[in-house]
Design a protein that fits this description.
SMCHD1, single chain, two-stranded antiparallel sheet, SMHD1 protein, Heat Shock Protein 90, 209 residues, alpha+beta, HATPase_C_sf, 4 helices, 15% strand, elongated, 2 domains
């Protein structure tokens, strides 16, 4: 930083708390923005940018479906929510070389648990990392890069064809998690990648939150 050996300086947080040997360990995560100053109360010569990292509150996830679909301009929102749930299966089976199977089941047998909507397909399956990425709020399956492994690797978005299984429901931008929490209060994703013997399961639950 070009500081000479006889020059005094301090390191502070953006709210001017001086970093010392005693409180350094409290900086528990990467990405904290720090100032290197001549004194704690030194006036900043330039505007600064601060990096922040946060996870959405669970209410953002649980209640987002209601907000999303109540804004559906007076239309019955349930078909749109169900269509979004089917979209994952459309994407997952798009590369099938054999039969393309997608089943939609409405389960009302109390002996098997609470009522549920089940969408079952014979697609390529998802790894544990891909399931994890599905759970991340507002992480588009078409733009995941870097540390994020796409949940539909190699999937090519088809040209939108009205009322056709070749079209892409997600073209309209409504998320699967919003659809889940509009229809119910939990999601259970069970998936086995085609090239693996492992079965992965992800549960998102309002009760657990």
């Amino acid at each position: 930083f070009g500081i000479s050996s006889d020059e005094t300086f301090v390191i502070t947080t953006t709210n001017r708390m001086e970093i010392t040997e005693d409180n350094f360990s409290k900086l528990v995560h990467d990405g904290v923005t720090l100032y290197l100053l001549q004194s704690v109360d030194q006036m900043l010569l330039l505007a600064t940018k601060e990096r922040i990292d946060f996870l959405p509150h669970y209410d953002t996830l649980v209640k987002s479906g209601m907000y999303e679909y109540y804004a559906s301009e007076g239309q019955n929102p349930l078909p749109f929510a169900l269509a979004e749930l089917i979209d994952n299966s459309l994407s997952a089976t798009s590369q099938n070389t054999g039969i393309r199977s997608i089943q939609i089941k409405l389960l009302f047998d109390d002996s098997q648990g609470k009522p549920a909507v089940a969408v079952i397909d014979n697609g390529s399956g998802m790894t544990s990392k891909q399931l994890n990425n599905w759970a991340v709020y507002r992480l588009s399956k078409f733009t995941r890069q870097g540390d994020f492994e796409s949940d539909h690797s190699g999937y090519v978005r088809p040209l939108p064809v009205p009322r056709s299984l070749n079209s892409d429901i997600s073209y309209f931008g409504v998320g699967g998690k919003q659809a889940v929490f509009f229809v119910g209060q939990s999601a259970r994703m069970i998936s086995k990648p085609a090239a693996s013997q492992d079965v992965h399961e992800l549960v998102l639950s309002k009760e657990d939150f």
